[in-house]
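Minutes, project check-in
Item: structure for the 516-residue chain
Input as provided by the requester:
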Amino acid sequence: MVNRMVRRKHLRSGLFVGICAAMTLLPEASYADADDALAGLFDAVAGVPFATTMLGIVRSDERVPTTPAVLDQRLAAVEALLVQFNARLQQLETRVDQLQVEAVKTANLARLREYQRLSGALSLVTTELKTHPSDQGRRVVLEATARQLIDSIRDTPQFDLWMWTDIDPQSHLLRTRFKVTPSFEIYSYAAETWFATLAVLYDRKPQALISNVGPDLKKHAEFLRTHARWNVGQPPVSLPEYLNTAVFCRPAAMQQFADNNGSCRFGTECVDNIDGKISQGDEFTLDMGRPAPGASTLCTWDPNRQWNFPIEDKLRNDHGEELMTALADAMEKIANTGSQADPVVGTFADWVMTPLFSVPLDQPLSVARGSGIGSAPVVAACGDISGCRLPATGEAAWQVATSTQVRPIKNKSNSLCLDVKNNAVATGAQLVMWRCNGTPTQDWEKRPTTANHYRLASAHSNFCVTVANDPPPPPPGSISATSHLIHPQRLVFLQPCGNNPRQEFANVDSTIQGPN
């Protein structure tokens, strides 16, 4: 207690000296009343638990399908946070107005005005989204606006929008340093608003979203992650790297030499340069090895030792590190799958796992081994699937409905669903394999024809799956003329349903067994 009182006395007596030292770098007109003008500048905004609330909003998107009602709930939650955020900005402005050091006051006010501009622009976007605009051009404008807003927060030159000038509680000098709040708070609101505009613009069109916006989403995901080879000794580039540089814990030896058993007692000292605090964490004992007879082992910490400090994780999460990871995960998921929602799980009672054979060709629909999202299913040549013997690994096995109800069609080997590329509604629309997401382009109806045969009609376009015609035969004497390509792989696409025999399919357990 005595030591703390002495320390506080020294802090107070040293404050004037520190301010004067700082003011030697400032204009004459800036010399008045700097004492306590910046100290406590962030009292009104620091420590606000926005991260926990926003984390719940972001993660709820993984479990709930995006419907107008759900979207309204998300927008209402973000709007409520924005109202609180604007109130804190007003408090922050009052504190900045008290600052008489004009050089730093001007810089802080410029940042504050930018936050107010961003907040107002985001409010306009969310307000219009809640009207459920049906005009495609307006939806495009809203998405572009939201993307420009979040880009401007990320791409501020020299990270300036994330820097604030304050009085260092240790040195009592004016210092410009990285601050998470309110910067990351407005960035998070912008991210969730952007997600909402994507849900409206690319409703049930995941492939178009991936193609048009995927690269931008991945850039933001990279901004929200620590690079694999980065360490605290390197200059920070991404947001969590700045956070890890500003908030960290380190061991502090509580004794100079190890005891007779070679053990040293260490404490944990945590430095939070964002809030300007130093705190103490857990104590722990470390075995330094038995000392040589007559010698003493110095209690030192090996800088190469990997050590996890739980209090360090808590401090960083208080500043939003967990939310940074959740946002990065959400952006990567949308960039890769076109949706933040988790894949459809479960099966229908009338599903069966079976090969699908093209009736006129007696050959199965299949996917390439190891194929992934975006790959094209084909009616394979016999030579490509072991002489038309069905592969045991499931490339030609499909989970389809036994009834005529509208259901997805799922491949056994890659667990992907049959989908329509780019959500197209046109003759010749290509079919691809895609992450099962419950969209209409993944719904198919079995329309009976004759003798247990059926057509596969898209519930999205009402067109039928059609096997492409054979290409012309290769020239005589060419290499391909003697290879398996004489039985080519045939792509499948959509055409208006009709009497085309290449639109007829059958299960292997019905009248068409397929060649063996």
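Outcome recorded: Residues 1-47, 383-387, 481-486, 510-516 have pLDDT under 50 and may be disordered.
No further action items on this chain.
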